[in-house]
Design a protein that fits this description.
By secondary structure, this protein is mostly helical. It has helices at residues 3-16, 22-42, 53-65, 70-92, 108-119, 173-181.
Length: 184
């Protein structure tokens, strides 16, 4: 799939699922167009598989050379990060378990914990929130874990048919998108 087509799906997701304001989507489109203009100097027809952490880092360096303000660069990279996370979750969605309610507490750190567990990576630091344990549910109240503070790693929400399926190969674009989307 071409990257612009995937970005259009992302904009549709923002509009429908996240109820993003039209101005927000317009800003994202403008920032993405700038990224595409940069990326097309590297590749003529950009495919989703070419959206890697290395390309995003090259873009970051190019923005810095243009002497843009720090807030402008952060905003453009935040858009790429959001888009990268959405691509990864879209890739994982066929493996999602359905038909049950999960009471585990999750937040944005859960994505990072999932990446670390699924690919056998180390936590960011000894003090980061991705070091918190997975919650242990209390039978009387499944919403309040016995071992607080705790944050889930999303693994119970997915079912990979074989141990090797769903695991990114060391150089795959999905792995790179996961790592970039998680801020690595």
């Amino acid at each position: 799939m071409r990257l612009p087509a995937a970005f259009e799906e992302f904009c549709q997701f923002l509009r429908v699922e996240k109820e993003a304001a039209p101005r927000t989507i317009m800003t994202y489109r403008s920032r993405f167009d700038d990224f595409l203009q940069f990326a097309r100097t590297e590749n003529s027809a950009l495919m989703v598989s070419q959206f890697t952490v290395n390309l995003c880092r090259s873009y970051q360096y190019a923005l810095d050379k243009r002497e843009l303000g720090a807030a402008t660069i952060r905003g453009r990279l935040a858009m790429l990060s959001s888009f990268g996370e959405w691509l990864v979750l879209r890739d994982l969605s066929p493996h999602a378990r359905g038909g049950r309610v999960v009471h585990t507490y999750y937040d944005h750190i859960s994505i990072l914990k999932f990446i670390e567990r699924n690919w056998g990576l180390q936590p960011l630091s000894v003090r980061s929130r991705d070091n918190l344990p997975n919650p242990v549910a209390d039978a009387d109240n499944p919403y309040v874990p016995r071992n607080m503070p705790a944050i889930g790693d999303l693994m119970e929400m997915f079912h990979f048919k074989h141990e090797s399926e769903g695991r990114g190969e060391k150089g795959s674009s999905t792995t790179h998108r996961l790592n970039y989307g998680a801020g690595r």
